[in-house]
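B., you asked whether I could sanity-check this one before it goes into the benchmark set. Here's the sequence:
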Amino acid sequence: MPKPWLAWIPVLNVWLLCKVVGHGIVWTILCFVPLVDIVMTVLIALKLARACGRRRAYGLLLLIPLVNYMALWVLAFGHRPSREPGLSTP
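And here's what the prediction gave me:
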């Protein structure tokens, strides 16, 4: 992972978030286009939940004001379910 101080610089934190979910500079630029940024925010929230090993419902919780703080806490520090062989992924 890149240097953690990138998260504190306004444009670079969006780039870092896009990189975490598996996309690059094009998605970062699209996040700054009016009206497109709404769609990009939803897509990034859903992909962030999947990148953290959670269901997409956690991504939807990231879009709700005040609830998003708890959802971010769970994504960052919550217990990740162990995946045993033979079990289907959520």
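One thing to flag: Residues 36-51 form the longest helix (16 residues). Otherwise nothing jumped out at me.
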